[in-house]
């Protein structure tokens, strides 16, 4: 029994050290270090004033039509998220409707998570999302390429990504580093065509009727977050999102 407890404590210690080492590794890169030097002191004051503490989790909601990227945070001991910051896109690509195939210039729509922190991006700093997922592959179909390399990044140019100014991506990036360092393995990134209220659904489905079925599969995730202020349990099955 003592051996089991000791093994558990050693494993826990290694996990904590691995999490803390994420920030230490990132901050070795010049751009990340500079972002921390320029932004973190002020940003941390707002984080603490918001009650999020030094260990928080993060959700990103992005709305293509509105051109807004929302950062939601919660203290790791809290149950719900609250809105921390809203950033404007500084460029747009494509139109509303999901990305279908490589080269179509579309920004994806769906439920994703950050899977890349790139401190040496060609677009200053960038956060990659796990596009394409199973739903995207099903939409694109066999023998066609859905595209890849979708990021939230700086530099104000885009072909399918979400661009912010360099100053804004510095803040988003280090907030992501802090959340990851505090133990959040997967930071949700939800790409919506618009704020998916019933009024907006009616308006935009009238303009883009071929997207009706897909958008109706996204709306429950949007509504669940609006109601509960927490990320919905979303799974992918048979080419569709299932929200529970």
Automatic annotation (TrEMBL):
<comment type="similarity">
    <text>Belongs to the YkuD family.</text>
</comment>
<feature type="active site" description="Nucleophile">
    <location>
        <position position="161"/>
    </location>
</feature>
<keyword id="KW-0961">Cell wall biogenesis/degradation</keyword>
<comment type="pathway">
    <text>Cell wall biogenesis; peptidoglycan biosynthesis.</text>
</comment>
<dbReference type="GO" id="GO:0071555">
    <property type="term" value="P:cell wall organization"/>
</dbReference>
<dbReference type="GO" id="GO:0008360">
    <property type="term" value="P:regulation of cell shape"/>
</dbReference>
<keyword id="KW-0732">Signal</keyword>
<feature type="signal peptide">
    <location>
        <begin position="1"/>
        <end position="18"/>
    </location>
</feature>
<dbReference type="GO" id="GO:0009252">
    <property type="term" value="P:peptidoglycan biosynthetic process"/>
</dbReference>
<feature type="domain" description="L,D-TPase catalytic">
    <location>
        <begin position="58"/>
        <end position="192"/>
    </location>
</feature>
<dbReference type="InterPro" id="IPR038063">
    <property type="entry name" value="Transpep_catalytic_dom"/>
</dbReference>
<dbReference type="Pfam" id="PF03734">
    <property type="entry name" value="YkuD"/>
</dbReference>
<keyword id="KW-0133">Cell shape</keyword>
<dbReference type="GO" id="GO:0016740">
    <property type="term" value="F:transferase activity"/>
</dbReference>
<dbReference type="GO" id="GO:0004180">
    <property type="term" value="F:carboxypeptidase activity"/>
</dbReference>
<protein>
    <recommendedName>
        <fullName>L,D-TPase catalytic domain-containing protein</fullName>
    </recommendedName>
</protein>
<feature type="active site" description="Proton donor/acceptor">
    <location>
        <position position="153"/>
    </location>
</feature>
<keyword id="KW-0808">Transferase</keyword>
<dbReference type="InterPro" id="IPR005490">
    <property type="entry name" value="LD_TPept_cat_dom"/>
</dbReference>
<keyword id="KW-0573">Peptidoglycan synthesis</keyword>
């Amino acid at each position: 029994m003592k051996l089991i407890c000791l093994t558990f404590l050693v494993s826990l210690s290694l996990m904590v050290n691995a999490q803390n080492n994420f920030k230490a590794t990132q901050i070795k890169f010049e751009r990340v270090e500079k972002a921390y030097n320029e932004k973190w002191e002020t940003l941390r004051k707002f984080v603490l004033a918001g009650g999020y503490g030094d260990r928080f989790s993060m959700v990103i909601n992005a709305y293509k039509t509105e051109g807004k990227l929302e950062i939601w945070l919660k203290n790791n001991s809290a149950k719900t998220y609250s809105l921390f910051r809203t950033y404007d896109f500084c460029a747009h690509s494509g139109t509303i409707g999901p990305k279908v195939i490589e080269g179509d210039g579309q920004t994806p729509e769906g439920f994703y998570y950050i899977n890349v922190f790139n401190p040496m991006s060609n677009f200053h700093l960038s956060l990659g999302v796990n596009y394409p997922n199973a739903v995207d592959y099903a939409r694109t179909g066999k023998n066609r390429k859905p595209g890849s390399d979708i990021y939230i990044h700086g530099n104000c140019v885009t072909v399918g990504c979400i661009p912010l100014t360099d100053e804004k991506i510095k803040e988003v990036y280090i907030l992501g580093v802090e959340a990851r360092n505090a133990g959040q393995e997967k930071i949700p990134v939800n790409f919506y065509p618009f704020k998916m209220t019933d009024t907006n659904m009616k308006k935009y489905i009238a303009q883009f009727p071929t997207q009706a079925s897909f958008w109706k599969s996204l709306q429950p995730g949007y509504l669940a977050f609006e109601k509960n202020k927490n990320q919905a349990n979303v799974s992918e099955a048979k080419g569709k999102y299932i929200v529970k």
